[in-house]
Amino acid sequence: DIWLDGRYTNLRLHLGAFARKIQDYITIAPTALPTRLPLSPPTVFQYVNGEATFYGLDGSASVGITEEITLTGSGSYLYGHDDELDEPAIGVAPLRGSLGVRYEEEMGRFYVEAIGTAVAEQDRVSLSRNEGLTPGYQLVDLKAGFGLQNGVTIRGGVMNLFDEFYWDHLNARDPFTTQPVPEPGRVIFVDVAWAF
User: Fold this and answer.
1) What is the DSSP annotation of 157-186?
2) What predicted TM-score, i.e. pTM, was given to this entire model?
3) What pLDDT digit, counting tens, does each position of 6-52 carry?
4) Which of 192, 29, 31 is nearest to 126 (CA)?
5) Are the C-beta atoms of 54 and 129 separated by less than 8 Å?
6) Residues 175, 39 contacting (CB under 8 angstroms)
7) In this structure, what is the dihedral angle of CA atoms 100, 120, 4, 111, given to the nearest 10 degrees?
8) How many C-beta atoms surround the C-beta of residue 108 within 10 A?
9) CB 133 within 8 A of CB 125
């Protein structure tokens, strides 16, 4: 592992990288055994020990443009290879990144924030273990908060503003249709917090 963290007057920075060689990597491999139930998947798998190699990068930054406006960004990437089966490791999330801008009133009484997230298609999948491709997607979230008297804060926002239909690569699949379970559509929320 190697990482760098820095904090300056108006800048926070994190960069990290790692490499892993895993022995006794427990995963699954297809077998020639017949299925026993009508609703069973077409392939029967067994657990196997093997070796795998992983590399990863992640980073984040926060920059104060003015006293009230802050820009943020983050990203992560993971590469995995199953050395035993000589194919991509199963269950590896794709490249992901986000950008955000936040306005916070100088006295901290209210804020408004917008965050955009982009996730790449995952096409490095384990075909022998029936892992499916996952399309990429983009999301926009909006949030705001207002501080009232006596420690009361009202927060609200809209998650998935444009009602994107999507699922993450690691989401569970419906056992009957084998389709991935999608994430929620547009979500509007309001909450009240009281600090006492």
Assistant:
1) EEESTT------TT--B-TTT-PBPPPP--
2) 0.86
3) 999 899 999 999 999 999 999 988 899 988 887 777 788 899 999 99
4) 29
5) no
6) yes
7) 10
8) 9
9) yes
